[in-house]
Design a protein that fits this description.
Blueprint (H helix, E strand, L loop, with lengths): L2 H16 L5 H13 L12 H6 L8 H18 L6 H19 L27 H16 L4 H38 L4 E8 L6 E8 L6 E8 L10 E4 L2 H6 L4 H9 L4 E6 L2 E6 L3 E2 L2 E2 L2 E8 L2 E10 L6 H12 L9
Antiparallel strand pairs: 1-2, 2-3, 3-4, 5-6, 6-9, 7-8, 9-10
Helix pairs in contact: 1-2, 1-5, 1-6, 1-7, 2-5, 4-5, 6-7
Length: 341
C-alpha cells in the first residue's frame, strides 16, 4: 500500500496496544515509524531496475526478520522514554506495527515475499488497489480523534473503530474480488477462451471496477486478454480484448536473467514485444493497455539475433490521466464503454 496508509495503520495499531499506558503521541509516533521502516528498502540499489523491482518487499517485509528486529527496536523505544517496565507492551506494539505492514501489502497485487528466508514466493492477493482512501480514511480519522482526545475513552474507541472499519473494507475487497472472478471465468468459458492464468484486481482507487487479465493456456494462440467488470454492470458478463504475448521473443532469450526474474515475479502475467529494434518485457499486473508501470528494455536486435542489454532500462508509463479518469468514473458506475487505448 501507499506510505500514508502504512503510516496510519502503524500509528493506529500502536495506539490501540499502548492505550493510556504512555502518552498517545509517543505511541502514534513510534507506530508510524515502525509502519514506515519496511519500505525503506527502496533506498537500496540492487544493480538494475528489474532487480530493484523484484527485490522490493523482500527481506524488509519478511515476518520472520521483522519479528527478530522488533525485539531490539522495542527495547530502544522503551529505553528512550525510560519506560523499561513497559518493554513487553512496547514490544507488542512495535511488532504489530511492523508485521501489519507486509500483511497489508500482501492484499495488493505487487508481490510481497513475507515468508523469507523459507521461500521467496511473492504473495499477492490483489483485492485492494495500492491507493484507496476508503481504506485509509478510517485509520486517519480514528487516530487523529484519539490524539485530539488525549487518551479519552471516546478517542480510544474511535481509534479502534477505525481499525475495524479499515479491516472490514479489506474483507469487502476479498468478497468483491470473488464475485468479479466468478463473472470473469464464466465469461471466458462462454467465449471459448482457454485461460491458463486469470488475474482479477481492482482498477485505480476503488473496489467497484475490476480489471481481468487472462493468459491463454494454448501456446499456439500466443495471447493474453484484458477486460473490465463493474459490480454495478447491468449484466454479469464481460468482454475481452486480445493482445499478442510474444512467445517467440521469449524463446530467443532463454537465459536472460531479467526476463527470468519478471517471469517468476509476475507469476506468468507478462508479455514481450519488439519496437524500433528493442525488445521489452512488461509485468501485466500493474497498469492497463497500453500503459504499464513496470516495462523494461532487455535486448536489442543485431542483424537477425537478439543481444541482451548489459543493464535493463525501465521505460514504464502511467495511464493518460486526462482520458483515463473520466473513463474510470463512468465505467466504475456501470457504464459499459471501451477503455482508452
Amino acid at each position: 500500500m501507499d506510505s500514508l496508509s502504512q503510516i496510519a495503520l502503524g500509528a493506529a495499531v500502536s495506539v490501540a496496544v499502548m492505550g493510556r499506558r504512555t502518552a498517545l503521541w509517543k505511541a502514534a509516533l513510534w507506530g508510524a515509524v515502525a509502519g514506515t521502516l519496511p519500505d525503506l528498502d527502496v533506498l537500496f540499489d540492487h544493480g538494475d531496475p528489474i532487480a530493484n523491482m523484484v527485490l522490493h518487499r523482500a527481506e524488509s517485509h519478511s515476518l520472520f526478520w521483522l519479528t527478530l528486529f522488533s525485539l531490539p527496536f522495542a527495547a530502544v523505544v522503551a529505553g528512550l522514554h525510560k519506560q523499561w517496565a513497559l518493554r513487553g507492551r512496547w514490544w507488542l506494539a512495535m511488532w504489530l506495527a511492523l508485521v501489519t505492514h507486509p500483511l497489508l501489502d500482501v492484499m495488493t497485487v505487487y508481490g510481497t515475499q513475507l515468508a523469507l528466508p523459507f521461500t521467496n514466493h511473492p504473495y499477492g492477493v490483489g483485492s485492494v488497489f495500492i491507493i484507496d482512501l476508503l481504506y485509509t480514511l478510517p485509520l486517519l480519522v480514528g487516530t487523529i480523534w484519539a490524539l485530539a482526545g488525549r487518551g479519552s475513552a471516546a478517542g480510544l474507541r474511535a481509534n479502534a473503530l477505525g481499525l475495524v472499519l479499515s479491516t472490514a473494507y479489506l474483507a469487502w475487497g476479498v468478497f468483491a474480488q470473488a464475485q468479479a472472478t466468478q463473472v470473469a471465468k464464466a465469461s471466458l468459458a462462454a467465449q471459448g477462451i482457454a485461460a491458463q492464468h486469470v488475474l482479477v484486481t481492482p482498477s485505480a482507487f476503488n473496489s467497484l471496477l475490476w480489471r481481468v487479465v487472462a493468459v491463454s493456456g494454448d501456446p499456439a494462440q500466443d495471447a493474453y486478454y484484458e477486460g473490465f467488470y463493474s459490480l454495478l454492470d447491468p449484466a454479469p458478463t464481460m468482454g475481452f480484448d486480445r493482445f499478442a504475448r510474444g512467445h517467440a521473443l521469449t524463446a530467443q532469450l532463454p537465459n536472460d536473467l531479467g526476463v527470468q526474474r519478471i517471469q517468476a515475479f509476475s507469476q506468468g502475467f507478462y508479455k514481450l514485444h519488439e519496437q524500433a529494434g528493442q525488445v521489452f518485457i512488461t509485468d501485466l499486473r500493474m497498469g492497463q493497455e497500453p500503459n504499464y508501470i513496470f516495462s523494461f528494455a532487455v535486448a536489442r536486435r543485431n542483424g537477425g539475433a537478439l543481444v541482451p542489454l548489459a543493464k535493463p532500462e525501465q521505460i514504464g508509463a502511467r495511464p493518460d490521466i486526462q482520458r483515463g479518469l473520466p473513463w474510470l468514473w463512468q465505467r466504475m458506475w456501470g457504464q459499459v464503454i471501451p477503455p482508452p487505448r
